[in-house]
Specification:
Shape: elongated
Structural class: mainly beta
Oligomer: single chain
Strand content: over 45%
Distance between the termini: 34 Å
Strand order of the largest sheet: 1-2-3-4-5-6-7-9
Helix content: under 10%
Low-confidence stretches: 4-17
Length: 182
């Protein structure tokens, strides 16, 4: 019986060196989004950076927060002029680090804000949800892919606020991160 417990522990990654700690994971990525809604169909894309801060348990699970901050991006409507955009989102996340080469996480974006510069000068706020997976086969870094689905609760444009917009986004993000556990 003891041999079975030891074998299962090694296979599942539960070894004596497992420890709890604080996960600090800065990342840099590129987001490609499809925007749909009344008079807003188009695409948005751009570079982003962010950081995940989490408590990592000895059993491979981590729970924390994630902040994504858009650098420069472009919003390109199906008709009309392009505009510079900035996208910031804050998530509550839970993740799982598998013992071999893989990690996965889910996040609830409790604060999602996208600002469009001239000619639109508008701001959309809402909530979103994301699912992510990372490949950890390289030393020190994780190569990540995320799917994000969001809905706007409110749009402000030209001093007018619309509290029930029909605006939805679907995004795909590729990123590289540096997961550090202290």
């Amino acid at each position: 019986m003891k041999k079975l417990v030891v074998a299962l522990s090694l296979i599942l990654g539960f070894s004596g060196v497992a420890k709890a700690g604080i996960l600090v994971e800065p990342y840099l990525g590129y987001e490609m989004a499809k925007v749909t809604g009344t008079n807003a169909d188009g695409k948005a894309n751009g570079a982003e950076f962010g950081v995940r801060l989490a408590y990592k348990t000895p059993v491979m699970v981590w729970v924390g927060v994630d902040g994504t901050f858009g650098l420069t991006g472009k919003y390109s409507p199906d008709s009309g002029s392009d505009a510079d955009s900035k996208h910031n989102t804050y998530y509550a996340v839970v993740g799982l680090d598998f013992p071999i080469l893989l990690r996965a996480w889910a996040g609830y974006g409790f604060s999602d804000e996208m600002k469009l510069e001239s000619p639109y000068n508008s701001k959309a706020t809402g909530k979103n949800f994301k699912l992510g997976v990372g490949f950890t086969g390289l030393p020190f870094v994780s190569l990540n892919a995320e799917y994000i689905k969001g809905t706007a609760d409110k749009i402000e444009a030209g001093g007018v606020t619309n509290n029930s917009p029909d605006l939805k986004t679907e995004s795909f993000v590729i990123s590289v991160s540096l997961p550090l556990v202290f």
